[in-house]
Amino acid sequence: MTIRKILTFPDPALRNVAKEVTEFNSELEKLADDLLETMYENNGIGLAAIQIGVLKRIIVADVSEEKNEPHVFVNPKIKVLDEKKKGGYDEGCLSIPGFYEEVVRPLKVEINFQNLEGENKSLFPEGLLGIVVQHEADHLDGKLMVDYISSVKRQRIRSKLLKMKK
Ligand code: GNR
Ligand code: NI
Fold first, then answer.
1. What pTM was computed for the model?
2. pLDDT tens for residues 9-20?
3. Which is the closest atom of ligand 1 to the Cα of 44?
């Protein structure tokens, strides 16, 4: 397993749209392992492959206290089951360090996905996991949580993070 470097906003690579996974092989398993290890190392509760510069539709998450419930979702598709509400959770993003904001999202969703064997699965994630899978699915389409806030705020975060990189 390898800890990978996480790209940070406003890196243009985070704006790509990731490609459907079609091959379920040991390379994909290795990628899932790296994603989980990189997520745990950075105290994250979710991570999308695009954040480590890999343009594949695969995300991981673990919202458990003990950090012993890893989820891997390949080719995830989110189906919205109710209207948008504030989830009551401040969202953070490992690609936007130091910034937290409550994002208005649907609370009830269904996620259809494939596992590492390529089998079709579905899940009705509750609470924080429902928020995280939506956050991660956004990443796969080049969308970031700063896109939900005002452009003035977004610019401020952008210049702050650019200064930090220097
Ligand atoms: O670690 C993370 N915490 C988090 C908290 C609330 C809502 C979403 C998240 S995801 C984030 C990790 C990350 O950036 N995933 O893309
Ligand atoms: Ni994120």
1. 0.97
2. 999 999 999 999
3. 1
